C-alpha cells in the first residue's frame, strides 16, 4: 500500500527514512523550518518524483503517517507547529538522550514515547527506528540475518502499518508490545550508541533477534 508520509525533522534520520520510503513509491513530504533551504532541495531531488518539501504543518496536513525525527529538545515545539494530528500515525524515532549521549533525560517509569503521546494525544504513536544508527537505516544489509527493529504502541492498526513500513526497508519488524515498552526501547538505543561510539565496535553494527 502506498502511504502518504510526512517527515517532521528532515535531518540524519528523517532524510534517510524519507528518501528510502519515497524511492519505494510512497509519497513523502519533508517538513522543515526552512523548506526552501539548499539542503532540503538536495534531499528532495535525491529522493525522486514522489518526494517534496514543505513546512512541518504542510508535511503533516498532506500525510497519514508521520515520522517524528527531531532532536529530543525540539520535539515538543515541532509537534506544536504540526497542526491537527487527529487520527494520524505518529512514528516516534526520537531518543530523549542527554547531550553527552551518556544517559536518558527521562525513563524507567515513563519514556520519551509516552511523553510524545502526551504532547500529541490525538495521534496514534508508535515508537520505532530509535534503536539503530541512521547509517544502518540507510543500509540494513549484513552478511547474515536481518536487523531487528522493535516497535511498540497502543493502536493495533497503526502498528500493522508501521510494521509494514519497517519490513519494506529490509528490517525484521518485531512487535514489542504497548507504548510503555518505549521505557525499554530507549535505553536499548543507548546500548547501540555506547557500543558504536564509545566502546570500539563502530557504527556498522546491529542486533538480530533469534527465536525457537
Ligand atoms: N542519528 C541517528 O543515528 C539516530 C538514530 C536513532 C534515533 N535518533 C533520534 O532521532 C532524532 C533525530 O536525530 P537526527 O540525528 O536525525 O537529528 P538532526 O539531524 O540533528 O535533526 C533533525 C532535524 O530536526 C530539525 N529541527 C531541529 N530543531 C528543531 C526545532 N526546534 N523544531 C523543529 N525542527 C527542528 C532540523 O531540521 P530543519 O532545520 O530543516 O527544520 C534537523 O534537520 C533524535 O531524537 C535522535 O535521538 C537518531
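^ Assign residues to that structure.
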Amino acid at each position: 500500500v502506498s502511504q502518504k508520509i510526512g517527515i517532521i525533522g528532515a535531518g540524519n534520520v528523517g532524510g534517510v527514512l524519507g528518501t528510502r520510503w519515497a524511492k519505494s513509491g510512497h509519497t513523502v513530504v519533508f517538513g522543515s523550518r526552512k523548506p526552501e533551504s539548499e539542503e532540503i532541495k538536495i534531499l528532495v531531488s535525491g529522493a525522486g518524483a514522489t518526494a517534496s518539501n514543505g513546512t512541518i504543518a504542510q508535511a503533516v496536513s498532506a500525510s497519514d503517517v508521520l515520522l517524528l525525527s527531531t532532536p529530543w529538545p525540539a520535539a515538543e515545539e515541532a509537534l506544536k507547529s504540526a497542526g491537527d494530528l487527529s487520527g494520524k500515525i505518529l512514528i516516534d524515532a526520537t531518543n530523549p538522550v542527554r547531550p553527552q549521549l551518556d544517559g536518558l533525560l527521562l525513563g524507567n517509569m515513563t519514556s520519551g514515547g509516552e511523553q510524545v503521546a502526551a504532547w500529541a494525544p490525538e495521534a496514534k504513536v508508535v515508537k520505532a527506528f530509535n534503536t539503530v544508527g541512521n547509517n544502518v537505516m540507510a543500509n540494513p544489509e549484513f552478511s547474515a540475518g536481518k536487523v531487528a527493529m522493535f516497535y511498540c504502541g497502543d493502536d493495533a492498526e497503526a502498528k500493522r502499518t508501521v510494521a509494514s513500513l519497517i519490513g519494506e526497508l529490509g528490517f525484521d519488524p518485531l512487535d514489542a508490545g504497548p507504548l510503555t515498552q518505549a521505557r525499554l526501547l530507549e535505553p536499548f538505543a543507548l546500548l547501540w550508541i555506547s557500543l558504536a561510539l564509545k566502546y570500539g565496535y563502530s557504527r556498522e553494527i546491529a542486533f538480530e533477534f533469534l527465536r525457537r
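The chain has a mean pLDDT of 98.
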